[in-house]
């Protein structure tokens, strides 16, 4: 931090801080990055102020909790991790200045200059100053002000993908909103959902533009901005249910309770004049948020608007959940290669390769949107290598993707590529698999993805059990249970424990009756009971439950691998398995790995 000027007036006041290309203006409650003002919540600004005041000193986690959540409020580590992630997202190219020290705290790794009031000279601002920072739900109000001047364009060769993911995000969001506002009344709000302005049941003229901007921000990997916009629209427009519907799905990954609240809020807004498409849209998102079957409303939506390519992708994954592999591939092949979302295109092509579509690999490498993006290009190379069984090449490609994503602050793909690298390393029996799991867990927690962190902890329990470390395995299982208590996760976590001689995190006898009686879970309750019997040493009962599971369709579920391993343990014939794509229920990879060690 710059030396204090001994000649300054005694009553001088700190007006702000500067480091690298960042300016924190305490007087205006504003954050500027590379001369462009970016949206930031009061708590984000307060955290950054604490870091600047600390002058490179490590702030203990408890110290941060006491300052940001005073009065003894009960706050989880995930809340602080999410706040740090949001602040890093706002800082853009300077995100790594906010350093986290594992199990200790935070510090700012950058020289800080303090700006006092006596150093300020009157000057005319070059942008329209917004009012004092409002709570997060009002971030959208900043968009009503005149946008700041656009910064110099980055080099042409990087423009196509840096702008898609990068900064200054505030400028991109404002420009998107202005462009959409100039379009006709019943314009497309989301091509992926085939959602139009007239579907929204909106009472404000700017609602379609703002929802379109939020969806575009999410497509660009800016989920935090997208959430802030949708929360703002929900508060400002008292009639549209669409923001609450989307937020219900997004929140279901970390908080089922919050997901249910958003679902109820949306349902209360569905009016008598809601279009048939909007009603089905609400049914679909409600089902997704509450982990219910989606095939009914999803197929009906596509009957009305088959051009909704994101819904085609969702149907493909619904078909995957039912092991309808041919149908899933047909749905994926209906998605055009010129969709505007390059990230979604990468997932579509990766899934097509996984399902045996050899042409998709060539299409993936030729797609301009993919070739121009080094993060997605390396990620897809990893997917292709994984599908071909070349695990070392897959790991190397995923590592490249994660590395470039980290360099350019593409946090979503830093986590996604790292997670795929973990799966490939586990499948290959790599010596560094445990270290990769630890690193990926940290990334998942930074991004408030408790579901991913919990699954990774399950893999840690598997490795610890195989290494003869039962205490470490039990700790990892407990962490996994605490991180994801959703109904769908209880079965795979319990089966993983039973298959590896660990105490199950849930009582199998109580868990089995609650398994939904739907095709996607056909025979799953019986497999849980079968493994429970096997763990007790009752092989006869285990065999009986296995036979029942097969009769009830276990082979068409994402627990078929658990059934195959039980058969092998009972001395029956079992076919080796390999996961591709390795979702849903990635934990079944452990059953495939264990099955390789069983005697035929």
Automatic annotation (TrEMBL):
<dbReference type="InterPro" id="IPR001867">
    <property type="entry name" value="OmpR/PhoB-type_DNA-bd"/>
</dbReference>
<dbReference type="GO" id="GO:0003677">
    <property type="term" value="F:DNA binding"/>
</dbReference>
<dbReference type="Pfam" id="PF00486">
    <property type="entry name" value="Trans_reg_C"/>
</dbReference>
<feature type="transmembrane region" description="Helical">
    <location>
        <begin position="165"/>
        <end position="183"/>
    </location>
</feature>
<dbReference type="InterPro" id="IPR016032">
    <property type="entry name" value="Sig_transdc_resp-reg_C-effctor"/>
</dbReference>
<keyword id="KW-0238">DNA-binding</keyword>
<feature type="domain" description="OmpR/PhoB-type">
    <location>
        <begin position="14"/>
        <end position="110"/>
    </location>
</feature>
<keyword id="KW-1133">Transmembrane helix</keyword>
<dbReference type="GO" id="GO:0000160">
    <property type="term" value="P:phosphorelay signal transduction system"/>
</dbReference>
<dbReference type="InterPro" id="IPR036388">
    <property type="entry name" value="WH-like_DNA-bd_sf"/>
</dbReference>
<protein>
    <submittedName>
        <fullName>Winged helix-turn-helix domain-containing protein</fullName>
    </submittedName>
</protein>
<feature type="DNA-binding region" description="OmpR/PhoB-type">
    <location>
        <begin position="14"/>
        <end position="110"/>
    </location>
</feature>
<keyword id="KW-0472">Membrane</keyword>
<dbReference type="GO" id="GO:0006355">
    <property type="term" value="P:regulation of DNA-templated transcription"/>
</dbReference>
<keyword id="KW-0812">Transmembrane</keyword>
